[in-house]
Structure formats: structure tokens, C-alpha cells
Specification:
Distance between the termini: 42 Å
Structural class: alpha+beta
Helix content: 25-40%
Strand content: 25-35%
Radius of gyration: 20 Å
Order of helices and strands: EEHHHEHEHEEEHHHHEEHEEHE
Amino acid sequence: MVPRPSARHLPLPPPRRYPTLAYTDPVDSVTLDVLDLRLLHALQLDGRAPFSKIADVLGVSDRTVARRFGRLRSTGSARVTGVPHSRRTGHAEWLVRMRGLPSATAPLARALARRPDTAWVTVLSSGTEIVCIFRVAEEGPAPLEGLGRLPQITQVDAQRLLRPVMDHRWSGRTSALTAEQITAMRPPPATDGGPFRLTEFDRRLLPALAADGRAAYPDLAQQVGWSESAVRRRLKELRTAGVLQLDVEVAPRLFGYSAQCLVWLNAAPARLGGVAQALAADPEAAFVGTTTGAHNLIAIVVCRDADALHTCLTDRIGCLDGVDRMETAMVTSYTKRTAPLP
């Protein structure tokens, strides 16, 4: 294995000042420095790691880590969320694409984001499209009732998201720590068991974790009406079983990446696996998954600017052996990333 370069030798971008796209409402601008990048990388590895552990790995004080995270969270620049793993809980994920009048997309996107069964809502192509993911229990169909009857929506397409292909996070926000620091921060691997049945207690606990993945045990106990010890024990069980996924919501613009694009690909059936793996290995890929429908692959690529996106699409993705057709749409804004806004 090639050793990972130390953080001091990484080609980090200069600090930039951008408004985050993580939320619909404007928030204060922030500037990320090297410590912020390392903190966000550490939280991406273990979103509930104590500040004392993160501080020890990063070589700073607990107070510094707490203050830095508090600043990022209070400005809406980053937050930790906890959501259930769809495959472990038996949920189907449906990718729904809607085209319509720009005047209708913003209110519709906000309405979709408020639904508990949506996992991701984004506006594309300067407000002419919305793409969202519905999480449906017991492998059910996408809940499309009413969407096709809206006069402002001209087209609705729903395809089943079969399986994510990438087993790692986007490299733009996971390149700040050394190999030794990554090992120190990474929690024990989850067990790979069968389907996991959620309890009524879980259905009260998971929404609280979606709002704040780092919520303290006493706060969680108060919200769900159970003892702190019961909450602590159940949360550990959910993480050990791989049911709870902790994620750090942060806008790529804060890392200096301004061009985000959805890419639909049609790959020859015999080459589908190879194309998917090659795409997942691309440093600018943030998500790759297989789908049903006319396109059998979907990807999200995050690039520094339009020129870098052009290079990614033409020199790398477009040249992959087995790609027959490609369709792209620029991300205009995110209304919901993984969890509802608190």
C-alpha cells in the first residue's frame, strides 16, 4: 500500500470565503483553514467521536476542537447527521426526477424536503429540474401521488436506485489526515448481518439523531423518553449493526469546489461493473450508483470549476470503455442533503 502523504504536504487550497449551499436560507460566510479541514475529516470518520479523542489525534486542545466545531455548526456550514442504512432496514430508494417551470421548483423542493421519506432533494439546471430520493419501507413503490397532477410539473420520472458502488467518501473532504490519524479515528467496522428490524424506540431515536448526530445522551434520553443508559446501549447496537450512518453535511464550495454535476450514464451491460468501478475511483466522484431505467448508472461529480468539470467529463468519464451515452445536469442548490433541517 502506498503511504498516504502527511497533511502538511497535501495540496490544500488556500482559505476561501464562500456562502454555504448546505441550506436554503443564507448563512454567514466562513473560512476553512487546515485545522478545520482535519476536524471535518475526523468527524467524517466518526461523527460521534468525543472532542477529547479528536483533540488528541489532531494535537490540539479539547477546547479548540469544541470551539471550531461550534463555529462551523452555528453558521450552518457543517453539521453531523445520523440516518438509517436503507439496505440494512429493508427500505427501497427511488430516484425521482421532475422537470417543470422555474417558478415552481423552489416551493416544491422545500415541500419535498419537509417529508420524512425523502433522503435527498436538489435543484438542477438553474431551477428547471428537481431530483430527490424517496426511502420507502418494505421495498414499496415510489410515492408519486399528486406530483404528476401539479400543473407546473411537466415530466416525472422514477427509477429504483439499486446499489451504491463507492465504498468511500469524496476525496475533497477526506484528504486532510495522515494514515496514522485515520487509523486512530476510525471506529470498529460494523457487522455485516441480515435485515435489521427497527423497534418503536428506534423510530423515536432516529429522528433525533437525524437532526443532530452528535446530540448528547441526556438530550436524546429526554427527547425519546427513555433512560440515558438505554439510549447509550441502543445507539451502540445500531452502530455496531451498521444501521446508523453518521455523515457530515458540508458544502463542497467551502473546500474550494464550485462545480457540482449529476451524470447519468448508459453503459454496455457487459461493461457495467467495470465502468462503475472506474468511475468510483475517480477523485472527483462523490457518489456512484446503479439504477433501473434508460440509464443504468448515476454519479455526482464535484470539481473546482467549469474547466475542471469539462476535463472530467471529456477526458475521463467520456473515455471510459463501455460508456454508450451520457447526460449531465448542473446542481443549482441543495434543499436537503441527508436529513431534515432542525
